[in-house]
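Problem 12. The chain below contains 165 residues. Write out its predicted structure in token notation.
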Amino acid sequence: MSQLAELAAIVLGPLERRPDDDWQRAPTGKWTPAQIVEHLAIGIDGSAQKFEERRDRPPMTRRPRRLIERIAGVSILGLGWYPQGFKAPEGTVPAAVVTRAAAESHFRRGIAKWEALERDLLPRRPRDLFLRHPRLGDLTMPEWVRFHLVHARHHARQIRERVGT
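Solution.
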């Protein structure tokens, strides 16, 4: 079972049995729960896709991390603390209107891709295959899994605030 399997409960749990209107509720200028789920789906699905594309590359070497990337790595990957106030990287910003069905489906597809990667690719390439994160530098597959878990917990708090759980 994927380490990311718990994401469905973390992210979608607060929205379970909620009407579609709750997926569209947000303070002015903030993302709706549907947009948050879509944002997470874009990152999860996109990182899985990129690792899949790199699956047959020869062993890679991590590029040196800048000081800010090392500090962010300790905070996010080490301590599990996701700082507030960062803007989402451009490619992960959800559309202005996202439906419940689209966001939930995309999210579940991304998790399914990671389950396949963890089953098929991770045992062979845990430390020599990297994908660049915009704020953390080059990350291995296990590091990306950790990032997705911490990132999802951060956004799940926002979802719970919006739906009042």
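Discussion. Residues 12 and 77 are 22 Å apart (CA to CA). Students who got a different answer should revisit the alignment rule from Section 12.3.
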